[in-house]
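# nightly structure sweep
# worker-07 picked up a monomer target from the shared queue
# config: single-sequence mode, recycle default, output format = structure tokens
# input follows
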Amino acid sequence: MVEVNQQLESSPAQPGPQAGLSIGEAARRTGVSVHTLRYYERVGLVVTPVDRTHGGRRRYHQLDLEWITICTRLRATGMPIKGIRRYAELVAAGRGNEVERLDVLESHRDQVLADIAELQENLKLINRKIDVYRGRLAAGDADQLWAPHRPPGAH
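# output follows
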């Protein structure tokens, strides 16, 4: 079971994930590069071996696309490759380690929440600075805003 709710597009005129997609088509549908797909496989982020044609070309299926989406979203939220690999290893190992999977996800969620809180504080500072500039520009005295300068002769 893959925990992703995103509906991935499938065009009836082209082979769908059930028949298997080329690496290029899988990259297009998941929004990552071919290089990223190969990298995910190389560093152990996939939960099942990627299917291959008789000629050795990769063939991606719906489960692969959903898992790639999970990896991409975890990475986009700042989860280190090591953390995604650990989560992938647990999922690939199958039943019996759900508590460990939950721990990995909860720990990452806590980090994401801390990152969001820090970003919100930084955004408050930016908004205060914007308000100051708008106020000074409206008052016509923006040239009075602090601007650092070096004393004569300083480098």
